[in-house]
Structures are given as C-alpha cells and as structure tokens.
Amino acid sequence: MESQYGIAVTNKFDLFIDDDLDPFEILRQQEEAAKKSKDKTAADAKASKSKSAKSKKNKNNAIQAQQAQTTKASSSQDSQQQGSRDFNQNTQKDGT
C-alpha cells in the first residue's frame, strides 16, 4: 500500500490581500487627494496673498492721504505766514 504524505500550507498574508481593490487604483486615489490638498493650499495662499496686498494697498492709500493733508496744512500755514509778512512789510512802509 502506498502512503500519502502532504503538507498543508496557508498564506499568512492572506489577511492583507484584498482582491477587490486594484493597488494602482489606490495609488491614483492617494495622488489625487495629495494634488487636491496641494491645490487647496495654493489657493488659500493666493487668497491670503491678495488680502495682504489689498490691505497693503489700503495702508499705502491712507498714508498718502495723510501726507497730502499734512502737505496741504503746511502749505496753508506757509501762505498765512507769507500773508502776515506781507502785511507787516506794508505797514512798515506806510509808517503806521
């Protein structure tokens, strides 16, 4: 009579194999998710950059307006001083 000899082998990594999902599909999904998050980050950075540019522009406009008012005020003071000088010179010439 013949004896039969055999060894039963099971795959211990069978737990981790999922035949339903393609590994390339998983990689593609991860790449897309990374790309979307990168695009979102870039869009957020661009939005914050435009906000900072707007605030910087508003700040520059405010500074220019303040400088214009200061210049206008100093020129009106200069004209008042010039007017008072002219008046003093005219009164001295008249002798009164």
Describe this structure as you would to a colleague.
The protein is mainly α and 96 residues long. Helices cover 75% and strands 0% of the residues. The protein has one helix and no strands. It has one helix at residues 23-94.
Question: How would you summarize the topology of this molecule?
Answer:
Blueprint: H1 23-94
Task: Characterize this entry briefly.
This protein is mainly alpha-helical.
Helical residues, percent: over 70%
Number of helices: 1
CA gyration radius, whole angstroms: 42 Å
Distance separating the two termini = 154 Å
The H-and-E topology, N to C, reads as: H
Strand content: under 5%
Average pLDDT across residues? Answer: 77
Largest sheet entry? none
Work out the number of β strands: 0
Low-confidence stretches: none
The structure class reads: mainly alpha
Shape: rod-shaped
Features:
rod-shaped, 96 residues, mainly alpha
